[in-house]
């Protein structure tokens, strides 16, 4: 048979053709005794054949089956040898396997080998051949067939299989051999899964002898084996405990060899499910060590630590492991991977687990590791690095709870914030989010000025960079938090250095370059920063220098909100000023214009309190806005009366002269429509100062006033107007007085009238009765009420009780006070114009004046000439302390603001003073004023005198203008066709009154305008035949209280009224100084006291006065230190000259205006200065004196300066009720003789005790000016000898000029 097999062809086609014959031959040939040769021949044929066919498979099966059927015996050694030979030499294909499987199964080799005696040697041969076999398959089918042979035929899990080699007794007896085979299978399991099946079979057959091997080299471990190990250990927790250290080692080896998938499986399947039973300390230490050893940190985080940490967090771990937990968190964080912070955070979040109080240094190191992540960037939508923010939050919480921790963390936090806020460095969003938390570690108490400055600088740099680039949300939030910490610092310390304020003001200003809102209408970064810091900073401003640093910022904010209404900016601006302005009003006072404009435009009352405070510092600015204030108070039916009533009361108390007729008209128009309440009552009460100052303003509204009092019988309102009612009734004609008394009685009998108000009305009537009892006699019955007893007794002349007499005396004292008010109010409307004030001059004027006051060829004098001022005026200003400011005052008083500014700029350019010009241009630019490039304006000084007349009197007015020009006065004609605004430049208005003028609308317009503008005026009565005094209205009030000059019928005569003209010149001289260079020969030196041709002493039309000359020879006319000032009205000038002569001869230093006409200042200025120096004002009282404005001004000035006033009553007048030296019945030729003169001297001795009247001292401390000599005018410049007793005048600018 073996020969037949050896002769078989390997060619498949030939074999197939011969198969029938071969088959018959095989079945017909008897089996030889040596069956070994047959199997060897068959094995050789199979091993040599590389392309088997189906007949060849049948051949093998047929041969083996015949041997079995014929019970051919063969030794076990031969079978094993053939089997080993095939295993060693064969390929891993189906053909070779078919031979092995057929021989092994049919000859039952397994059973033969385990039959007694056990053939260990043969089994070892099979095992060794298998170990040497390399399983490389060309197809999955071959692999599956070999796998089935080895795991189901040669070895098997089934205990019922008898033909297998892994019987329990074999494994037990051949433990060493099979353990070696097992180890080889384990090692080869990674190369081929067939070996893994063998491993499982052995572990299943006898697990106590063949446990899973975990000490294999890492390169020998396969996924299947790993899974096998996992399944094995998972089912046996004791196995895990026993081999835990080996498990950790294999995990370590897998990690270090970057086999993270296997390591992940071990960790997830074996470690994490058994945390409660394993050696947790060893696990934690192993993980900590791995974090420092690995190279692939991301894989360690994601595949090992992630799930492990998750299980650690939820496991019920004892606190003894807290330190290792923290170390693991630190080690994970040290990996510097994207996901590491999340796992570290989860470990650190464990509550009541760590002993934080003892971990200050550990937390400091943890913070540093969090900070080190600033070098990482992450582009994922979900940023694991944001978990750093949570870790820092944990650190911050502990730092805030435990002070020892906070102290350790503070310097680290400061250093980090300063670095992250560096605008030159760029960080990812997680850095800025983390930074927001780290900022919480910076204790406000520990911030010093140096750190504060660095943080402010960081904000400034970030702002500068962000203007030109993108500004991320997280970036802005971080810097917003910095600003919040700074704001807390500001609030805590309340006082910052000037350097800090300087930086903050610059920061705020630069933030204004940001839009307030982004494209989505969300607040911008700059907007938020200002919202956080602005008001806190305002609270820290404590001195004027620091406050001024913020003025440019606040001004710009104000400009922005004016152009674009932004509520938040408006509120910050308001609150900043409210906080800072109250503390430092000296700075806020420069912004009064803004506060008032805001209040008027927005009707916001926030500034009411501050405005009241600022008024005390700079009342003039408020007075400039009196029109707007009154309009505002009266708008919206008086809704704003309460808010600004305090401010209005203060203004009325200090400056009642600012109220003019149009304001009173507005007030009475509004109070008719506004319901009476406490606000309106307070507002009306504030008018008490006005009504006592300018009673005539209320004359045209008396009926409305009475109706208002009747409608609202308020005691407070009545008391406010009580004095005015007395003044009004006593100064009205009889019919008007009776009408007003009727109104009082109507109020008295009104059922709403309270008892207290009845008492006040009765007292008002008592004051009237004291002055003119006849007004109330016929109304006696109306006062028959309990409160009217005293008045009735007085009317009946039945005052008997001392108490009643005392009441009458008190009433008389009150009446005297009212009469003084009447006297004073006649001049007060002019006082504000007569005193030099620079309140209307722009702020920049002082800087320009400083430049132009420096003496040069092109100083302020050149500017004055360019503007058209005369040499006389320039010489007058040279005597002033600040001549340029005096020039500016004159210029801005007589011109509109824009016109004045533009003209100054052009004039300065014409004289080549571009330095001063630039100051004005820069100030105008800062104020938002637009200056035209082409200044075509050419404004000169306006004439100081305006002639108001009716057009029918043009011839007379022209003549008057010419004569005034001859005396040194320029005039401008002003009739009903002239624009009202041109009158602004007038120093005094001359009203030429006749019947046509009074009947014209122009008259009432002029009078109203004079009162509103508070311009002084002189009335010329030029028509004797006209009944010119108006019977009603405002003209009646004005003309009734004013003096006038009679020019007779001169407008129709050719002769000029020489007697009246000097009186006119004297009146004008009070307000305007003449230009002596333009006076003609006819009036040459009329203003200088030359006795021969002094026109004031000539009475050309009166023969009596021609011959009655007054000799003033050898009398001093100019005094250096006057003791007595003579105050009189023009009609009394002759008596005054005689009085002057007598008093001077007695040794008194007497000052008389007739001898003070020279100089550039007005007589009003001279009077004010002289009264201040003198001891006494001697007033010569006449009816005309009581009406003369300048006379009343002199009385008021003396009272204000608390100078003694000695009244001398020359003529009867009801307007003067105060006691006086009575001279009404004295000698008309020379009043100053006899007992009355002695009485006058007695009064003077009390006032001026240093002069002995019985020992006259001529020329004492006085001198006679050259101009007063009787010599020819050519000697006018003759120098007089200074009297030795006269005091020396200190060196002054005037002396330098001379």
UniProtKB/TrEMBL annotation:
InterPro entries: DEATH-like_dom_sf, Death_dom, TIR_dom, Toll_tir_struct_dom_sf. Residues 845-924 form the Death domain. Residues 1120-1241 form the TIR domain. GO terms for biological process: signal transduction. This is Death domain-containing protein. Pfam families: Death, TIR_2.
